[in-house]
Amino acid sequence: MRIGAIFLGFIVALAGTAASEACADEIDVVDARLAASEEGLLLSADFAFDFSSRLKEAVANGVPLHFVVEFEMTRPRWWWFDQDTASRQTQWRLSYHALSRQYRLSSGALHQYFATLEESLEVMRRLRNWLVLERSVRLTGSQYEVAVRMRLDTAQLPRPLQVSALTNRELRLESPWKRFLYLPPKAEGPAR
User: Fold this and answer.
1) Residue 128 falls within a domain, yes or no?
2) Number of domains composing the chain
3) Residues 155, 91: Cα–Cα separation, whole Å
4) Are 114 and 97 in contact (CB under 8 A)?
5) How confident is the model at residue 18 (pLDDT cuts 50, 70, 90)?
């Protein structure tokens, strides 16, 4: 009886550790919203995540990490397949430069430097005013389904880490799709 209780306690502790590790290796999309502007629709989103010790070690040793934020917008139709309105993605590259002892966060031609890893992650956690739909695109439906997610692009890792990422959760970091409805301020143009 005592051995069974010890075994059961061990299983419960192991399950609790696995559950906490699973939560630590995920990105949570805390908030996502669209706002109309003169240029078009702008997406702002807040993400919650932390790096595992393995990812911290990798970036500190000079391995650049590539993160992708994906956006999809569809118009539901009851009589046919949903209409794809927009699909965009943006990429961030996080790297560490040992000579300057700074973290570099790059997105396209924009580069920012930070003294600590936490400062660079704080910028990645707050996506602001990303143009996802140009003003020239007319929204013809009454409501649209929007989906947003963020993930570490493991295909951009060096080959040995790509193989490790297949079996090691510490090297995978991604969020599930955050879905919400967007109602345009007014119907623009004739229906298609």
Assistant:
1) yes
2) 1
3) 13
4) no
5) very low
